[in-house]
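[stage:ingest] chain + small molecule (nicotinamide-adenine-dinucleotide)
[stage:ingest] validated
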Amino acid sequence: MKIAVLPGDGIGPEIVAQAVKVLNALNLNIEMTEAPIGGAGYEAAGDPLPDATLKLAKDADAVLLGAVGDWKYDKLERHLRPERGLLRIRKELNLFANLRPALLYPELASASTLKPEVVSGLDIMIVRELTGDIYFGQPRGISTLENGEREGVNTMRYSESEIRRIGRVAFDIAMKRNKKVCSVDKANVLECTELWRQVMIELSQEYPEVELSHMYVDNAAMQLIRAPKQFDVMVTGNIFGDILSDEASMLTGSIGMLPSASLDANNKGMYEPSHGSAPDIAGKDVANPLATILSAAMMLRYTFNDEVNAQRIENAVKKALAQGFRTADIWTDGTNKVGCAAMGDAVVAAL
Ligand code: NAD
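[stage:predict] done
[stage:export] tokens:
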């Protein structure tokens, strides 16, 4: 297993070090090589995605990423900013499927802003299309009309094949879970998503065991707050998925707990926490490394098809939480507050 390890900026190096520690503790045959990305790439090679880093990522089976970005780079030209490195690597690796679980460990139910009975035991997988939709569709831009007024244009576009390939990812994942897919669209108003719904229905013929339902995006936003446990797998386009996955992440209380995976057509993937580089707490050994450690578990599951070791990591995280270990972001009275490295050690010990 060849893994490109890209720690990035801010808390990235601290949290990635914990995930690497956990992977090493599994004693698997893993080759891990580190390279800079984001602000670290700019410092090292004048480019947020240095050529050597991109080559390493292309040659690897999977990429483990920390986070990129720091306010000190905000004044750089747009193409040199850390976030550009991230967008480019996703595009270069053709990562069209973004998987974001929203999972609430019972021990952390009180960390959510929702009532514990609404969220306790929550386990949703949001499958978001990542390379199409209104974020990429042409034409786009801001132009001046004949009357001198400015007009902004973006275009929502999906081809049948783009919809089918993301649908397939969602149905395949549902087969490994509770066999329910909820496809989110706005088919009553947008033709693009009317096609989305038609293709999902066609595809569902190939998965007779999976129960397919449809929901308009406005209702889905409401249902995620009202009764989130009704969902198993949700599949949706880029813009709806962007918004709904952030909404779902907050159901679980802390963004420091949420992993993510972005996959290509051959299950090569990039695995990273859902949060950013948190420059406000960087270098203080207080960041929560669990989202990154759980991203490593997703890597074993989705790229290396190693369900056993994926579950070993997830169970070790559960055990560390059950033993009362908490980083500052999830700490509550009566639990044991630990730093980033100590949380990594607690997971390794639980393994
Ligand atoms: P952020 O996610 O970095 O931080 C938001 C808040 O959550 C901060 O208070 C931070 O301290 C806290 N936080 C985040 N991760 C945490 C963790 N593991 N443990 C404990 N607390 C945690 O978002 P932001 O502050 O809006 O952005 C900071 C920088 O990160 C910006 O430069 C932004 O562009 C970048 N960013 C990068 C990514 C990415 O690399 N995928 C995603 C979002 C933002």
